[in-house]
Amino acid sequence: MQNELLTTNRKALTINLDPLRYGTFAEIGAGQETARSFFQAGASAGTVAKSISAYDMKFSDEIYGKCGRYVSEGRLGRMLQYEYNLLNKRLAEIRGKESTFFAFANTVAAKSYRGTGDSHGWLGIRFQHETGSEPNDIVLHVRMLDKENVQQQQALGIIGVNLVYGAFYFHSKPVKLIRSLLDNVGRKRIEVDLIRFSGPAFSDVDNRLMSLQLIQQNLTRAVMFSPDGDVLQPSEVLYKKAIFVERGSFRPVTLVNVDMLKTGLAHFAEEPGVEGEKIVRLAEITIRNLLSHGGEVDDADFLARVDLLGTLGLHVLVSDYPEYYRLASYFRRYTKAMIGIVMGANNLVEIFDERYYEDLDGGILESFGRLFRNTVRLYVYPMRRRALEQSLALDEAMGEKPNPAPHQLGADEFVTADNLQVFPNLRHLYQHLISNEFIVPIHTHREDLPNIFSSAILKSIREDDGIWEKSVPPEVVQMIKKRGLFGYDSKIKTSSKN
């Protein structure tokens, strides 16, 4: 069947009529909406071994054990483990040879009658993909966007059915499974910002690529990875933390990137609102910076960037927020603490180009109001004038919209936030932001580092001329050589053939 043609009721009925599927539903926090769909579809006795909802914390703790947070991945994991093990213990001997067992669970904080708090939750399924197999897990984190509790419950039930159906019939096609998650509910009602696959059915699945699919298929606007490459739920990392972020293509990460992070972070850590606080350091890549000229993402290239940033101990955020003010608004979901963004002078030029804000009623003033309204600071790393002009010319060649404001400096003099030229009608605005330290110049940068662009570094890597090694951190050099990243070993292979 084509899943695009199936209603939620039809999906539930299809599963109920499938003699292989048999399992348990455990739901906490927004009713038993997923189980209810299976009961309403009919023939549920063929699928549902048990349905439970342990709302009371005492009951929940007695069944699944105590935990710090009830709406968390840890709680979901305990629910899945307990329910699956109990099902297998009681029924394996009776129907283990003719059934594929499953346990579906969710723990959710839906909109309360007081109307406070973020509406979100964890959903998961542990299931056998064939009789007698070891179980597999699929775990999701969702944000519920409806305004009313009843609508949130309904949406949660729909995505729950979609998850169960996808696990059974699309487990060999995880991209299709992801695409099916919002069937009959839509992207305006549910956001999925984490998905994780594990188990023998997914032995060849890379969860980082699946997370990227969440952005590419518009299920979310941002995903996050740990320095070790693990998929993370952003609120688990960012909640109430000060955030320091560097945006870039990082193809590959360079010594300039490292110095920007180091010097900018030193300024940020001295801010009165940050001093002594734990700071989350992020490298952020927009999805636009991952696309090739053909408009597709090169999976190997993407994974290489994430791995290289991880070697430097950085969390990685991939987002669909090209505008800085949207990125800052995204962080404000999770924290009221200070946010620092380090950027090169070329990026600051870009921010002051009014043509980027033609879709906003308030234009550049509205964008700056959104960007700076909640203790956000921009830390500006200098660039030699020659490099700045090359960067702007490169943007223009790629169809971007550079600001052509001239600089009365020598070719090798540094353009800083202090001497940056913007158009005359924006100079007073610029000075206001400088004077009030919304924009902070970095003066402690290394002047010996070359301003070399990623295209030139990539060319040098592929030709193996050694020049690129002077612009890249040693640990990054080692990984590129060891794993043959960015085409490093192509020359070696060519030479061996000759």
- In total, the number of domains comes to 3
Low-confidence stretches: 493-498
Rg, rounded, reads 26 Å
Count helical runs: 18
What CATH architecture of the largest domain would you give?
A: Alpha-Beta Complex
| CATH first level of the largest domain | Alpha Beta
What is the 3D form? elongated
Overall strand count:
16
Major sheet characteristics: 8 strands, mixed
Descriptive notes:
With 498 residues, the protein is of the alpha/beta class. It folds into 3 domains: 218 residues, CinA-like (Maf protein, Alpha-Beta Complex), CATH 3.90.950.20; 206 residues, 3-Layer(aba) Sandwich (Rossmann fold); 44 residues, no CATH class. It is 39% helix and 19% strand. It has 18 helices and 16 strands. The relative contact order is 0.08. The C terminus is likely disordered.
